[in-house]
Batch of 4 targets.
Target 1
Amino acid sequence: MAVHRKALPVVASSTFVAIWTAWWAWHMWPNSGLSWHFSVDGARLLLQGSGLNLYADAPWLQTGPLSLVVAALLRPLPANIGKSLALAVMTMAGPLLIAALTPLVAPAKRHRRMLIAAIVLIPAWTVLSVRWGHLDDVLAMAFAILALRAVSADRPVLAGVALAAAIASKPWAVGFLPMLLVLPWGRLRAAAAAAAGTALAWAPFVLANPHTLGALSPPVGLSPSSGLHALGARGVLVPRWGRTAQLVLAPAAATVAVLTRGLPGVLLVSVAVRLALDPKDNAYYIGSAALAAVVFDLLGTGWTIPWTTLGTVIVFWQPFIATFAHALTTTTGLTHWWFAHQEAVGAIHLAWAVVVIVLVLARPRRPVREVGSS
């Protein structure tokens, strides 16, 4: 009976989170899967079109081959069923990823802190998983959490493989590699596993067509609300150095965070640098940023309220209307201001990146609990 009484709060909170997640998914569903066609088109090109010439032929396809392989697994299903199944599974991944952090969170107020974190995260996560349906970002963050668990459990090979899978899903996940520096032993094995897995995913495309590297300078537009624009970049398309800067500076900043403050802030710093240097300001960025903030709040602070996550959700929440071409003539109030002041929005997002990086580096170092401890 005592065991059942102790389990009641967990069952009650899990039920509430499930209902909360389902409600937000239902709320987002009428305008869902806005970017799912990228996964479908990429999978079709990979299997029945360009093959290993994929990224040379379609440099605008900024996703990893692993996410396209996963999308290809749904091809035998009717299109609507495959899409709905993918959106549902991606949505369920949100609360499950928070639950995966449980052994790493300090026991004090653990249950309450994780419940509040889930409540704050889910609205942002469903923007990523349901409204936009970005499979590659979901996979990258899921594998990053798996790598985090593996590093905390001193399982170097699993950590390396998980990070390789994250990079194979989304190239910017290379910024998570510095978490391997936390390993007390087996760093070389972990790095070798990560390098081998990454090469296995990407080398065939580069060897088949050297123009694959042209994807580092894709024909992606430069948005006035982007961090890159706020930093002074101008023009119609992303500068040639834009993507390369992301892939180099994100792991560099994450390395500083890991060496000075340990594991909790590595995901947040990496994502912050990536968004600060990104040429776009897509609404689905909120999902990855919020989950990275949750990791920092739960593992790097003792806050009951996940303030970093809450601030991230507020800053990155974007108004949604069906016809963006008429945004300034059909909106009012705060929504109208958001559309009318894109450069100010970009400056706010850049300021968020600076603030969270400073926050991570300024917080006292807190040891992450070992997996399996009470």
Target 2
Amino acid sequence: MTAIIGFLNTIFWGYVLIYGLLAVGAFFTVRLGFLQFRHFAEMFRCVMGSGATDRDGISPFQALTVSLASRVGTGNIAGVAVALYLGGPGAIFWMWMVALVGMATAYAESTLAQLYKTHGAEGGIYRGGPAFYISRGLGLPWLGAIFSVCLIISFGLVFNAVQANSIADAFAGAFGLPKLATGLLVAVLTGVVIFGGVRQIARVAEIVVPFMAGVYLLLAIVVLVMNIGAVPGVLGQIFARAFGFGAAAGGFAGGIAAAALNGIKRGLFSNEAGMGSAPNIAATASPAPHHPSSQGFVQSLGVFIDTLLVCTATAVMILLSGVLDPTNGVTGTALTQAALTHHFGSFGAIFVAVAIFFFAFTSIIGNYAYCESAMEFLGLGHKGALTGLRGLVLIMVIWGALQAVATVFDFADASMGLMATINLIAIVALSGVVAALTRDYLAQRKAGQEPRFHIAEHPGLARGVEPEIWK
């Protein structure tokens, strides 16, 4: 079994997804007319005008913060450090590039999630995501079921154990807190939030996520101001090393290949564009304007914030510290802690531990939120089944805090690899629908109208769409 899982991960993560995610991002970037660049301001407009919600959904701002809760995790702290250690400063340039094309992918999958969403059990909150557009848009419910199971295993259970493990390690190192105590504390806090369902998760996320991201970015700005004279040199390193110039002098093996591979990998893992995770929460939003594309714009912004802002903040703090050394073995969280200790003394190491707690904890609740839509698709959206899933999540949090079993985590990687592959195929197959929705939205904006979507005006898109939602 271990050999099979290892083989699948080699195929998924060594070939299919690295190239597939990039290719799909480039495909949607071109097909949608470089939408993420030409209509960047629209992303903010769709978020800023979205304070209100209704009884059927959460607000687009809440959906953005829940998706950011999942996207912004330990990968933004440890993953960026690993990319720098293995690929050098040039890795950051390639991380930016993969995020910029990934914004188009995120737009496409979340737009589809909105179009094909439905009401939950007993007329409850909106539910949707890849399983729904695979079933309703492509007519393949069995493939949607496979996707849902993979999502629950990877995001709902095992990856939450990974996040808890990161918190336990950080607290043990910074405060000497026993891992069991940390696991129990995180489990209690998680339970308080997730037993309230998606609405409770959204209420917590819209407060905690802007706070945690804001403080982290503020610290990066302080570092920039403290080291303003060195900033041009650091930026020069990022661009020069991205194309192999001066890489040998810096001691980083592999030059342009190492920079590109590690930047692309870390970027893909961090922003989740194309993975099929964020669309599950995007579907629960009541979009403003009332058009599927508006939530696509909102979730595209999430990719920008995750990588172009938060990941860049980590990279800048590390590069300006001068502690990056590819020969000393210091990487991951330890490298980020060393950088902040250089800038702020002992406070730096404590801050990293606290940041990991917030980033990882919000990832746990965000990951769980995705699973409720998957449970709904599988016919398990009732209270009893959801209570059972919540209990399993808490058990995995405690277990993950205590130990890391590589085989289990490899299995989760294989599950995520399969769900991402399914999702990429689905959104490309439905790319005509995405293009039609985008043309409709932009045409209304160009005419000076508030975009509205009425399914009766688009009979070619009606198959699988719930008419009551888009009447």
Target 3
Amino acid sequence: VMEGWAERETSDRVDALLDEYPNVLYIKSDPTPEDETPVKLKNNRFARIFEMVGDMYARPKYGTMDLTPFFAPFYMLFFGICLNDAGYGLILLAMGMAMLWKFKGGMMRRAAWFATMCAVSTIVFGLFCGSFFGVSLKAYFPWFPSVKFLDFQGQFFSIALVIGVVQILFGMLLNIWMTVRCFGFGRALGLLGWFIILVSCCLAMGLPMAGLAIPGFTAGSVAFYAALGVGGVLMLLLNNPKRNPLINLGAGLWDLYNNLTGLLSDVLSYIRLFAIGLSGGVLALVFNTLASGFVPEGANIVVRLLIMIPILLIGHGINLFMSTISSFVHPLRLTFVEFFKNAGFEMAPRNFDPIRKMNDTNE
């Protein structure tokens, strides 16, 4: 007795093969939620590049939602923020293009595209910061339309928190959508209530802090309290319409406590975008200052180059290596912990790995 899995697109070929053996009896059926159904992802060309990122954690459970297309743009943004230097981005871009030229297929080519996409994000964000190997482009090109590097980093503490709130709310919206699709609208009422409360607070309290405001929807307006009331009823009393309202109230209060404490830690985790970007930028400035500081006063151009080039190569090489690792790892953490949790990610027990005919070289 054997049990196996086949894709719907290729199941006819499996049936034809089994029909060739008259003494073989087979039963075919669609998978059920209780089955440990293996998973194979199907994405567009852009999202396939970032499947290797999701596979480092797990693939989504069969019947749920593949989050790869949704976290891929955020991951590119986070990588560019953490590295935020156009010069470093150009080096990564050259490495990615070299890998694309060398590898024509397989996992290494996908890794090459991944490096290339992250390099492009780094270049764009580095130009926005006005940083090129730690040198301020604004200082040498006054016409350059960029934000001063240190000023930008001073403001980015708050911007990082805003980015965190946006991604978390986006994850919650995906969770609501997936819950409705899988279990019906009634099971998503509690999530919808929590989402309404958070969005209302962001619009009524967060926007005025940034100098913006929605007319008629402020922290003291009737519309704001009405939105909180609707969200509170959904979250506390209708989180499971099939249960007793008193049980729903107790469960809703417990979920409210967990959500508030969890949300605070989740949002604060995005400060790492500010911290990693600031540390890499400061180290680049330090190595530039160190290289110029070792040059004797009055030295000619040859002496200056002989002293500065080795220091710059070693210093920026170390900084590029360490900053690239940080820029790769910390967005992973934000994706797997903060985003996956709020998006309701469920992992698959195994990946779809079909039987295939091996050739003489075992490839």
Target 4
Amino acid sequence: MENTSRERLHTILHQLAEIDYVHPENIPNIDLYMDQVLTFLDQELGTVREATEDKAMTKTMINNYTKNQLLPPPEKKKYSRDHMLNLIFIYYLKNFLPMKDIKNILDPINERYFGIESGLSFYDIYNEMVGFESIVAKDVTKDIIRKYNMSKKAFVDEPDEDKEILQEFTFICELCFEVFVKKMMIEQYISAMQDKKTDIQD
């Protein structure tokens, strides 16, 4: 049973290691029509899509993002590189944040850097951020292994069958609690950003 549990963890970690970000140099620096946008996102986000997802995004989803002012409107039905960057961020963030929070995160960046032709660009920001990806991925992997080893110290006096169930439950709860705490921290940070914006406007 112990070997089965470790093999399961090894398989999951191997899958995580295959997750890759969208490389900046792969993002087209030409305007694209909707079908081209969907094809690009589907290809580039293939390694991070959930197994239940048929497509990374759909035409309806992108139109809704524009309608709700989450995504700047396209120019003559064409989407720029900055649109693509927005959609990449939206894709990652929508898995654990509501749309209003994503809008609050992206609005200041779009207001300052979307479509600018000189100085620091949206692309420059993305390019610098993904440079930290490999560091973060290694830290996450180490932390998962640490939590797994911690869970193996729980319920050690229980019968083997019960022990495996309880230890796996402990491991999942450890991961869930961390997600909960980090999500709460993000929400608090967004709230503070909004309060600061309101104070400036007043």
